[in-house]
């Protein structure tokens, strides 16, 4: 999965989808912590792997997610898609579609961060982001989960993001 994440990143870059960041959050359990270096070794270059401390608030619990989930955030830090297993497997189109939708559409409304390159590139690539058939379109709508934007969750998410950001800057 981790090599495929690098492939997805590269595919997006070839399509001029820039300013997309990936981060792997390793579980807090002892076995996961013991396997951290193996996880890091198997992860594509330049994709950070964040290791939770056993004493900190569990990141997955704070984000209302679980191992192998994909959480997609917009430029303003708002959650746009929460993709769970089995739909988070990268051979399915859901993760890529969620990233593209988040990148090209103002899903949460009134995004305060706008990129002029985003608008110029959107017209060139938007047809590639469209589902190829009705079944795929229905599957995308049914199986990606949008978490409601409530203040408590955003405060937790903001704190967790700050902790992760500090860790990855070391």
From TrEMBL:
Keywords: Glycoprotein, Secreted, Selenocysteine, Signal
Composition-biased stretches (Basic and acidic residues): 131-153, 160-170
Selenoprotein P N-terminal domain: residues covered: 4-166
Pfam families xref list: SelP_N
GO biological process: selenium compound metabolic process
Cellular component, GO annotation: extracellular region
Subcellular localization: Secreted
Gene Ontology terms, MF aspect: selenium binding
Protein's name according to its UniProt entry: Selenoprotein P N-terminal domain-containing protein
Gene of this entry: selenop2
């Amino acid at each position: 999965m981790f090599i495929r994440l690098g492939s997805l990143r590269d595919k997006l870059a070839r399509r001029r989808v820039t300013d997309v960041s990936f981060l792997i959050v390793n579980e807090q359990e002892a076995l996961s912590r013991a396997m951290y270096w193996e996880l890091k070794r198997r992860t594509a270059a330049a994709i950070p792997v964040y290791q939770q401390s056993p004493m900190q608030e569990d990141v997955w619990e704070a984000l209302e997610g679980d191992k192998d989930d994909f959480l997609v955030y917009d430029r303003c830090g708002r959650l746009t898609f929460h993709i769970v297993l089995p739909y988070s497997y990268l051979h399915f189109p859901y993760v890529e579609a969620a990233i593209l939708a988040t990148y090209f559409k103002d899903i949460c409304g009134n995004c305060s961060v706008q990129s002029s390159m985003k608008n110029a590139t959107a017209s060139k690539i938007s047809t590639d982001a469209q589902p190829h058939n009705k079944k795929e379109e229905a599957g995308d709508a049914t199986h990606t989960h949008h978490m409601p934007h409530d203040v408590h969750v955003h405060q937790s998410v903001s704190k967790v993001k700050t902790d992760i950001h500090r860790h990855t800057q070391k």
